[in-house]
């Protein structure tokens, strides 16, 4: 008879049983500690895509996919997205607490002071061909930061890695804006220290020398909300990449640069761009029924982009918040939101939410269904959508890097089920 807080595994080949302890978290499912599995049974466990594996202990983000719940360090996402600003969330992720008013101002000032990039780095942007994808430039440039800011690279010193953290969060928007402007042959615009962190992003993307840029508060709020909602999402593909790189004792510049690569794919950071492309293809409300039928047809690979989620099975709490923001943006009459695409999106949502196929499979609009339309209304081109995601996710990735460091975690080194050839006899 096994202990209450353990799982017993019996090897039916020889009848031997082994116990594995159950570890409980604060909330959410417990885990079975199988770290001695190989030692005891001489076998590895197999979990393709790691869907049943907790790869680490973490105190940063909690998700309950059934209840549609998302919290950063114990704060519900709707509180952070509606009552706080992105700088508060970044502070919360990095320093484990929401800032006081003074701490917020000090943190924002620290980010402002670090928002410029070394002038020598400008040559890097020049080296890329026209139309280079901004994600490629961003990944290269974040890694390059380590060569220009080599004064604080000690990964074992908290003051040095906090310096790297602030530099990355502050400089990524500037690099992002520069990479966009270079890719379009536009003059680069330096950060404006009179503007806030999020305001500066829109300013650097839109401005022209000597031209006045007037940003509406709702535009800044919309982007701020998108960044807050993307700031962390526990152990997804890019965060797992960041933690894997961090586990080798590589500095945050290297880890974040690798995370950008992982985020680039259409199954991850590229999803909202796919939503817009799909809405453009559908083109008109009268085509919606046809495309819904395609999505339901098992012989057709077509899927409704922006619907369904691997973790959220009832609703995506981030989607509800963004839907509200999209509606607020639409009310501001002189903000150009593509009304035809919104009509198509609304029709899809209305039809799918009433359809048995989608109801039975718990398929609801996810964050990407709304974020693409908002970014478009803010005048941000499609190939910059994933870059905006990076700006939002940077504090989360770095918080995960720091946590791994504080836990002194071992290098990540999974094993495999080898299915290649047995030893072949070479011909000499
Ligand atoms: N359109 C039509 N059918 C769908 C969709 C969809 N968008 N999503 C899932 N289904 C169906 C599947 O065909 C399957 O049907 P079946 O049970 O009859 O075989 C069932 O729903 C379950 O689908 P899975 O792929 O097993 O669900 P999973 O949880 O693995 O996938 C995923 C989640 C990848 C997000 C999926 O819903 C999808 O492809 N959605 C569209 C792409 C998208 O919006 N991605 C962004 C996700 S959010 C983010 O990454 C930030």
Give an overview in words.
Helices cover 51% and strands 6% of the residues. The protein contains 18 helices and six strands. The chain has a three-stranded antiparallel beta sheet. A three-stranded antiparallel beta sheet has the order 4-5-6. The longest helix is centred in the middle third of the chain and has 26 residues, at 158-183. The termini are far apart. The relative contact order is 0.13. The structure holds acetyl coenzyme *A. Acetyl coenzyme *A binds at residues 268, 271, 295, 303-310, 361, 363, 366-368.
How many beta-strand runs?
A: 6
Strand order of the largest sheet: 1-2-3
Q: Tell me the distance between the termini.
A: 57 Å
Overall pLDDT score: 94
How does the overall form come out from the CA principal axes?
A: globular
What ligands can be seen in this structure? acetyl coenzyme *A
Strand proportion, as a percent range, falls in 5-15%
Q: So how many helices?
A: 18
Order of helices and strands: EEEHEEEHHHHHHHHHHHHHHHHH
Report the C-alpha radius of gyration, rounded: 24 Å
Main beta sheet, described? 3 strands, antiparallel
Overall structural class, as computed from helix and strand content, comes to mainly alpha
Give the uncertain stretches in residue-range form. Answer: none
Into which percent range does the helicity of residues fall? 40-55%
